[in-house]
Amino acid sequence: MVREASITQEQVNAAANALRAAGSKKPSVRAVRKELGDVGSHATVGRMLDVWRAGQVQIPEAPITLPAPLQRVLADYLAQLVAEGKVELSADLAEQQQVNTDLSMENERLISQIDALQAELTACQSERDSLAGRAQQQNSDLQLARSDAEQERMAAAGVRTDLAKALLRLEALPRLEEELTTARAEAAKERADRVAAEQAAAVATARLEGEEKARQHIETELRTVSTREEQANGQIKELTAQLVDGRLVRARSERELRRPVDLRRGAGPVSAERKMPAGQQKGARDKQPPPDKG
Prior knowledge:
This protein is mainly alpha-helical. The chain is 78% helix and 0% strand.
């Protein structure tokens, strides 16, 4: 809202004196405002103009005695002055009514501005309440996000620990596979030796009595071989389960690594296969020998 220019009592007094000096007997509110450049409200100018009028010096009339003819002439002149005064008062009344009308219009304008400001204030208060609610909601969301981030961090730490354990087990797989291969070779050799021994026992039936001790010794070895074979089969099953478990852990680790959280930090030692690109890792896994089913 544009504020009206302020005026002073001295400016109003100077404008009223200028109008009176120019021939205006009674300066009006509208004339003074026009003289001031149409600044100041009607109410302000009217109040200051009343102060100026109250400060005007009233010349006291000295009592005089006049002859009767002169008194009649003076009475006629006074009657004429009274008539002219009535005309002037009528003009002043009309001007005052116009001033009152202007004041009413100004009051209505001010009331409209007050209503508009009140509506704007209400809108600002509503917006402030809305912003306060949004700020509180954002604070709650921030606390929830922090809690989720903490849970994700703890889950990531657990996954890193599991991944480190899985990598250690994967690093031990080549040694276990080498031992498994050796055990298979020994078991095959022992099975071949058993077949040869059985064939030799069939051919040496005639020499059964002389070879009884050798047969018993061979059977003892066969039992030992069978025991070792069963142990080797047990180891094969255990290693096969560990291999399957390691592959499952590796698949889970690869899924976790696709997440935005970097799980590779602090994951422990990395096997040679993990250092390969994704395509070479798949080729290396495809080249691994299948587990022996006994």
